[in-house]
Amino acid sequence: MNDNCIFCKIANGIIPSATVYEDDLFRAILDIAPAHKGHVIILPKEHADNLFSLPENVAEKLMPVVKKVAAAVKKTTGCDGINILQNNGTAAGQTVFHLHVHVVPRFEGDGILPVWPQGSYADGEAAELAAKIRAEL
Ligand code: 5GP
Ligand code: ZN
Fold first, then answer.
1. Catalytic site includes residue 36
2. How far apart (Å, rounded) are the C-alpha atoms in residues 54 and 134?
3. Range of the domain at 44
4. Confidence (pTM)
5. Which of 51, 63, 112, 113 is most buried, with most CB under 10 Å away?
6. Ligand 1, residues 7, 41, 99: which to mutate, most atoms within 8 A of Cβ?
7. Pocket test residue of 31, 83, 85, 103 for ligand 1, highest count of atoms within 8 A of CB
């Protein structure tokens, strides 16, 4: 646990939170400044700054928790859709540097999240870029 990290303290129960789910690896809580009421963030109990430093044994257990929590949020809020978001780095909007996954309930026409502009690739560019990314795996 990182003593200077607020999410370490919340995830490990040192700071109380509105918890919706807990197991040995994760705590899921209501976001303090929700996009909509019922907006949940899922925190690993072990500190990791972001996705790149998340241990494999935690990473592989994360998506089943995301799925379970998202289904419960959808039922409870009656939302029309759910966004799963996970920000890495300030450029991507990360403000708390303890990895967390957002589960955001969405309602038709709520317009709360920006959509990105639809770019394009020149001929052959996508294949070339895909090959470069594959080579890094
Ligand atoms: P990020 O921008 O890093 O992806 O998201 C950080 C999120 O954590 C924000 O949505 C913010 O509202 C939430 N947050 C920050 N501090 C606290 C806190 O002390 N308690 C809770 N429940 N949420 C927090
Ligand atoms: Zn932490």
1. no
2. 21
3. 6-136
4. 0.97
5. 51
6. 41
7. 31
Cα 10 from chain centroid? 16
pLDDT for the residue numbered 109: 96
Helix (H, G, I), strand (E, B) or coil at 106: strand
- CA 42 to ligand 1 centroid distance, Å: 10
Q: What is the pLDDT of residues 49-92, one digit of tens each?
A: 999 999 999 999 999 999 999 999 999 999 999 999 999 999 99
Q: What is the pLDDT of residues 91-112, one digit of tens each?
A: 999 999 999 999 999 999 999 9
Nearest partner of 105 among 65, 76, 128, judged by Cα: 76
CATH of the domain at 75: 3.30.428.10
Phi, psi of 21, rounded to the nearest 5 degrees: -160, 145
The one catalytic residue in 39, 47, 98, 100 is 100
- 1 lies in a domain? no
